[in-house]
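RESIDUES AND SHAPES:
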Amino acid sequence: MTSPDLGASQITYASAGVDVEAGDKAVELMKGAIKATHNTNVIGGVGGFAGLYDVSALLKYRKPLLATSTDGVGTKVAIAQAMDIHDTIGFDLVGMVVDDIVVVGAEPLFMTDYIACGKVVPERIADIVRGIAAACEVAGTALVGGETAEHPGLLGEHEYDVAGAATGVVEADNLLGPDRVKDGDVVIAMASSGIHSNGYSLVRRVINHAGWALDRQVSELGRTLGEELLEPTKVYAADCLDLARYEAAGVHGFSHVTGGGLAANLARVLPQGLMATVDRSTWELPAIFKLVAQLGNVPQADLERTLNLGVGMVAIVDPAGADAALARLNERGMTAWAMGTVGAVDGSLSGPDFVQGAKGVDGGAVHLVGNYA
């Protein structure tokens, strides 16, 4: 083997594009926000090889079931990067993860995050994590650990992606799901805060096709297009758990409206043989969804199987508890309304307004009727 030329310039980790000191600075900048999410169950501080969480409280459960979920925020990060605003994308990440867990009635206990970037800019990484931590506080979830990885040559200097995972617990007797849903149940919608974190590949394609810039003021939105597109995902965890524990509401199930749209996600939590009839006339499409439809001439069926169209979470409740459920949600500042009912599947139905099973789940069906208000 030829000996290296000691007089030649040396190759270091830093010259290869990885700045360890910048990573350490990012950790220092985010420490306070992370610690704010910690309760007495979190063991140790920030920076350990593993996050530790004391689960002694599970001893009070008769049969605790652990629930876990992992997700990212898709191409919405491209909007954050284009606008150079990074302290809101964390809400999108937490919402996508913890609100899947509460669908089964589980309380999210702790969460970890992962950030991959082309170059560690400490202030930018700290902004991302501060957003994650702030959303964890809203959800009542501890942020116990995470990882920031610098990938020069794979990602551009200003590019990054985020992902996360969370673990929760539910008493087996309180597990929510299709087996609890009954004929006659009422379907309650909870308003979304906007597009949330799904369908941005479609939205970005429409915006680019129309030639609209993110700093364009849009009168229908009352702000710039970029500000609307970056609106954080609403985190429903605390409101859903409160409703599930409110006996008068008679909650039988939840559905988190993410990729696939309302019908596909609602069908996943219905049992075989039952169908939710959802009346579109019970709500008006928020302006951003109308705008996407108009700018891209997007067919309604495509909108409905891609975007949430104003409904971010759904509760399925006993008919006797519907009024109580709505009152409870309204008391907590949630915009909610009855959007439909559950009944027997009509075997004669077909077409884009009818969904039978979805996402690999051979469950119930959803029939969308009427026109949006």
About this structure: The mean pLDDT is 91. The first strand starts at residue 42 and ends at 43.
